[in-house]
Amino acid sequence: MRVELSDWQLWSGRVVVVTLAVLAGLTVVVFTWLSELAFDAFEWLHALAWWSPLIWTPLCTAAIVWLTRRYAAGAAGSGIPQVMAALDPALPPEKLGLFVSLRLSLAKVVLTAGGLLAGLSLGREGPSVQIAAGVMLQARRLLPARASVSINVHGLLVAGGAAGIAAAFNTPLAGIMFAIEELARAPEQRNSGLIITAIVLGGLVAVSAHGNATYFGVIHIGSLGMGLLLPGLAVALLTGIAGGLFSRLLIASTAGTGPDWMSRLRARRPVLFSAVCGAVVAVIGVVTAGATFGSGYAPTKAMVDGVATMPVMYALFKFLATWLSSWSGVPAGIFAPSLAIGAALGNDVALAFFHTQAPALIALGMVGFLAAATQAPLTAFIIVMEMVDGHAMVLSLMACALVASMLARIISPPLYPSLARMQLGRAGMG
What we know:
By secondary structure, this protein is an all-alpha fold. The protein folds into 2 domains: 2-210, Clc chloride channel (Orthogonal Bundle), CATH 1.10.3080; 226-425, Clc chloride channel (Orthogonal Bundle), CATH 1.10.3080.10. 73% of the residues lie in helices and 0% in strands. It has 21 helices and no strands. It has helices at 2-6, 8-48, 52-71, 80-86, 102-117, 125-136, 139-142, 145-150, 153-169, 172-184, 192-210, 229-255, 261-268, 270-287, 297-305, 314-327, 335-352, 358-374, 377-388, 394-411, 415-425. Helix 6 packs antiparallel against helix 9 and helix 10 (172-184) packs across helix 11.
């Protein structure tokens, strides 16, 4: 104990890690505030003139893509593939800045908020992973020599990325599972304390800013019985197929190897292509009276609360808007839009079965589509359970996530590892 307490380098290293974990959480809180402010400004513009997105959205999308390609190419896309690429053991240390850095974190904050200002269908949770990882990585510059032996770059990236998920969704358990299932791919005993510390502190900062409330409130479900079996299976199958197709479409379109004119336009004139994507997203948003703009938080919460139902075509329109927003090349996450698509699919199944257990089917739809799109069923199950306080549905949510994820694996390779391999191509490792 005397040796432990007298080792100032060890304790100063711990202080650095704790400080950076708090800063990572604060950065995600500021990012959340800025994103909400940006989307509120877009909604004000849309309310002022219903046709304004037809002009504003494509122009803003083109400007974001131009800025991203010119000044922060590593900020494009979700952010999770970049962190996974940075964790690749074969990556030379000098290439790390291509994927994760403080500069990219700051650019990600501004550019993702810009995407919501444009009204694009995107989420901020994936970007939060890259943002928090970039902040957490700065600890390596401040760690004493002795502490840097036990606290390595890999541990800092995993801890930062997991803290980003925990702070963005206010779901600490999901942050831990995300670190294991998507980033580290296995529990890392040496840095497990570091990871949990970063997640707890990131979550505490988020709770201090937003309050200790679940992301979508509390879901109200009746007694679960055999009557839920058939519609629940229908939700698992539907979301598994839809999520698998969504993942496959994202991989194929991001690779840009297709023979279609859109892929050729994206390769030759990326800024013009992004304007075309923005224009189509704007048309979809106007047709749906604004329902597909943004992350989809408000429609999803309305369905979870049982105060509104979406039109049958909402899931398809949100699917297309999210795909085009990601394909355009702007910094954009898919977690929140995936939850909106899944909730709408669950709502559609509930309508088909005469409103049988609609709240439960909506929750199953959320977990099913997210699990299928990401092929991370444990993370998806815990995220949804924590976001809707769905502890009464633990087994149902877990079963739906596993079925949907297994079905998606037949249709598509894993989304984030595939995108991470494309990212490594930028470092000459593809």
